[in-house]
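Hey, does this match?
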Amino acid sequence: MRTPDDLRAQIGRDFARRDNLDSWLRFRAGQGEPPGPWPRTYGLGPPSQEQAEDYEAFSRFVASWRDLGLPGRVSWVEKSWSRLGRQTVPRTLSIDGPGDLARWAGQEERWARLEARYLALLGRWPVLAEVLAGHLGDLADYPEEDFDRISKVLGWLERNPSSFLYPRQLPIAGLDSKWLESRMRFMAGLAAPILGREAAGKDFHEICALKRRTGLVRLRLLDPGLRAAVGGLGQLAVPREALAGLPLAPRTVVMVENLETGLAFGDLPGTVLILGQGNGLKGLGQIPWLLAAERHLYWGDIDLAGLAILGRARRQVPGLASVLMDEATLMANRDLWGTDSSLAIEEPAFLTPQELDLFRALSSGRFGPRVRLEQERIAWDRAWPSFLSLAGQ
């Protein structure tokens, strides 16, 4: 015997499924077939005679479906029992649409907000259907002023597809750099189909034809000969566009995701260290002296974002090898695991089979929910010998 409270959890799960929401919304926007089957019918587990003989529980069960107070149609069936005679019992509940499911799940306001925003965006930009399927939660939960700002930014970019302004120059009320920087990936995904531009391997600035601030790339020269080539300097902060002009000829280039980790490195023969770039590695594959090095190494966090960054870096530097970013390292440092706060990340390209297996294991929760090992957590007396060994020391 399933009471309304028993059924509410299942209905909530049905409502939360992204494919359900996506199909419902596309249909409402006139972009898909009727999602089905509708109405959605749930069995209520009509009692047997033996169960009904617990008359108090049986009476509560029947009353709960007569006085439902929630949307849906209850079907009833008459039972003829030898000891209890004829009894009418609830058999199924039929629910007609996602709005009714939302009421059952306690999500009525959230569904109304999501539906209204989805239809507003697709009514203006029908090409957004595929992208929005991956951001339904964001779309439902953004504050109203954020959603309004998103629409204004997209509208301005559509009217000005090649402005080549800095983002902070965009003449949009309420827009500020901090707000935009925290949403650039989301905005890039929406802007690409609107502008008819390929998103793969490109960031917000490239997709939207906007200028980026000149970034400084921090380097450490871990070899006396390399330091002599730049007047004895051991650390440099160089504008990205000036990197190619440095008079360097390293044998090894090491890239590390975390700045403090890079500062801990000692000398290594013939080695240039690039510090703390993370997502800022873009463009380094166009530097002749970097590409000419015999060996390229990358060390980052073992989490979804870290492996995605590794894939993007290897796209630019095809021979790039990862260091301390494998399952053995993860398991050997189990006591140092943290929680990965990354949003869902698409499976990266340019990973080795072993790295891809690790990404899938982290994504599926095989090691546990949202596992992360930050590179700086690894004890230095474990990490540093790996680089000494690679340098032949």
User: Anything to note?
Assistant: Residues 68 and 104 are 11 Å apart (CA to CA). Residues 216-390 form a domain with the Dna Topoisomerase Vi A Subunit; Chain: A, domain 2 fold (CATH 3.40.1360.10). The two ends are 72 Å apart (CA to CA). The mean pLDDT is 90.
